[in-house]
Amino acid sequence: MAALDRLDPKREREGIWLPYTPQPDAGMRVRVASMASDRYQRYLREHERERVRELHQTMPMEDAREAFHCEAVAAEIVLGWEGFDGQDGTPMECSPDTVAPILKDARYRRFKSWVLTEAMRDANFNEIAVLEAAKNSDAA
């Protein structure tokens, strides 16, 4: 009998480290939380209406919604990163103020797409995956 997949709320909320490999030897990784997490959903409920209205004062409604979505992902989905350097070659701090402009910039749409894909991939936050990883490390 096959087991049902169960999502791990802690993994959904606290995120998991995933390799970001636009350049295989770059050593970049990102800590990604689930878009289904209670924390992200709460952020949307608590901030969307007011922030979109605020943004809409300076841009079309569709752009305001997209900008808010990037801000929400920066605040609650991208929880950390390693190996990301700025233009001057120094490590970039991972904070909503740093991440949101990157997500809003069309030149970085591959990164944004990757983050969204991983944040929606249930298998990343699956309790079975955690148990299998633990079994495999015990067997080694």
3D structure, described in words:
The chain has 140 residues and is mostly helical. The protein has one domain (27-139). Helices cover 54% and strands 11% of the residues. The protein has helices spanning 9-14, 38-56, 61-76, 96-104, 109-120, 127-139, and strands at 16-20, 28-32, 78-82. It has a three-stranded antiparallel sheet. β1 (16-20) and β2 form a beta hairpin. α2 packs antiparallel against α3. The protein is globular and about 45 Å long.
Spatial ordering of strands, largest sheet: 1-2-3
Q: Which band does the percent of strand residues land in?
A: 5-15%
Overall pLDDT confidence: 88
Please give the share of residues in helix.
Answer: 40-55%
If you compute it from the alpha carbons, what radius of gyration comes out, rounded to the nearest whole angstrom? 17 Å
Biggest sheet record: 3 strands, antiparallel
Oligomer: single chain
Number of strands: 3
Q: Kindly, what is the distance between the CA atoms of the first and last residues, rounded to a whole number of angstroms? A: 26 Å
Number of helices: 6
Number of domains: 1
Q: Which overall shape is indicated by the principal axes computed on the Cα atoms? A: globular
Q: Could you name the ranges where pLDDT drops below 50 across 5 or more consecutive residues? A: none
Q: Helix/strand-derived class? A: mainly alpha
Q: What series of H and E elements makes up the topology?
A: HEEHHEHHH
